[in-house]
């Protein structure tokens, strides 16, 4: 899965869960938790979704709250093997 697809999948899940309008998460650096797009209960299900995208488990004990700040921080934290060069246009 490429960087663009990962970002689209993350965005779609968040918008679907929150019921927010697409413009509330139009940019990859827009705040997610700060804007109330996900609740603390949503985060648990979101991690399961991320695991399905990664096709491997997430080390829950290694997760810092800051990784949920934006699409950018999610990709950096959970998809580190996606080449950074492909992120430049996102």
Largest sheet: none
Uncertain stretches of 5 or more adjacent residues = 85-90
Compute the number of structural domains. Answer: 1
CATH topology grouping: Non-ribosomal Peptide Synthetase Peptidyl Carrier Protein, Chain A
Mean of residue pLDDT values: 90
**Structural Rg:** 12 Å
For CATH, the homologous superfamily is named as ACP-like
Return the structural class.
mainly alpha
Q: What is the name of the CATH architecture?
A: Orthogonal Bundle
Distance between the amino and carboxyl termini: 15 Å
Percentage of residues in strands: under 5%
CATH class type: Mainly Alpha
Number of helices: 3
Percent range of helical residues: 40-55%
N-to-C SSE string, H for helix and E for strand:
HHH
Please tell me about this protein's structure.
This protein is mostly helical and 90 residues long. It has a single domain (3-87), classed as ACP-like (Non-ribosomal Peptide Synthetase Peptidyl Carrier Protein, Chain A), CATH 1.10.1200. The protein has 3 helices and no strands. Helix 1 (3-18) runs antiparallel to helix 2 (40-54). The longest helix is centred in the N-terminal third of the chain and has 16 residues, at 3-18. The chain is globular, with a radius of gyration of 12 Å.
List keywords for this structure.
disordered C terminus; mainly alpha; Non-ribosomal Peptide Synthetase Peptidyl Carrier Protein, Chain A; 90 residues
SSE layout and pairings?
Elements: H1 3-18, H2 40-54, H3 71-78
Helix pairs in contact: 1-2
In a few lines, what is going on in this structure?
By secondary structure, the chain is mostly helical. The protein has 3 helices and no strands.
């Amino acid at each position: 899965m490429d960087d663009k697809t990962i970002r689209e999948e993350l965005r779609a899940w968040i918008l679907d869960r929150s019921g927010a309008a697409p413009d509330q998460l139009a940019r990859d650096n827009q705040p997610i938790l700060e804007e109330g797009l996900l609740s603390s209960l949503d985060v648990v299900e979101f991690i399961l979704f991320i695991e399905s995208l990664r096709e491997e488990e997430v080390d829950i004990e290694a997760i810092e709250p800051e990784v949920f700040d934006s699409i950018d921080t999610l990709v950096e934290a959970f998809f580190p093997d996606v080449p950074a060069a492909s992120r430049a246009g996102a």
